[in-house]
């Protein structure tokens, strides 16, 4: 196998790994919402809009397992849970900014000209 093929395969493997973590309709919106600061469950649900509580809970668990977010439990009455980005999660900000730039361009070119 030549160097070019190995390089391509390596980059494809890395890309698949990254997409596995952020796959689906909800994970990037959750991460994006958390770039604006720590949020409680209800705040995330309001920010995102049409996500069910069950789906939000599942996606938060998956993001926590992948060390993208952290869940902090406060010993208060009632108990308060807050979600925040980890340093690894914050490292996605540059990618999100680029995705937002491309999304705005796509919307202008395709959606609004439809």
Runs in which pLDDT lies below 50 for 5 or more consecutive residues are: none
The total beta strand count reads 3
How big is the Rg? 17 Å
Helix content: 55-70%
Describe the largest sheet.
3 strands, antiparallel
Percentage of β-strand residues: 5-15%
Helices and strands: which structural class?
alpha+beta
Number of helices: 6
Order of helices and strands: HHEHHEEHH
Distance between the termini: 44 Å
Strand order of the largest sheet: 1-3-2
What global shape is seen?
globular
Mean pLDDT over the residues: 92
Q: What's the layout of helices and strands?
A:
Layout: H1 3-22, H2 27-34, E1 39-40, H3 41-48, H4 53-65, E2 69-74, E3 80-85, H5 87-90, H6 93-111
Antiparallel strand pairs: 1-3, 2-3
Description:
By secondary structure, the chain is an alpha+beta fold. The chain is built from six helices and three strands, in the order ααβααββαα. It has helices spanning 3-22, 27-34, 41-48, 53-65, 87-90, 93-111; strands spanning 39-40, 69-74, 80-85. Strands 1-3-2 form a three-stranded antiparallel β-sheet. It starts with a helix and ends with a helix. The mean pLDDT is 92.
């Amino acid at each position: 196998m030549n160097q070019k093929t190995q390089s391509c395969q390596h980059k494809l493997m890395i890309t698949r790994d990254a997409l596995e973590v952020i796959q689906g309709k909800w994970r990037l919106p959750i991460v994006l919402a958390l770039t604006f600061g720590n949020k409680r469950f209800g705040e995330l649900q309001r920010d995102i809009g049409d996500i069910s509580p069950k789906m939000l809970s599942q996606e938060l668990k998956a993001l926590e397992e992948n060390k993208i977010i952290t869940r902090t439990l406060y010993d208060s009455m009632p108990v308060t849970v807050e979600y925040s980005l980890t340093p690894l999660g914050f490292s996605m900000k540059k990618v999100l900014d680029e995705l937002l730039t491309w999304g705005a361009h796509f919307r202008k070119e395709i959606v609004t000209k439809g």
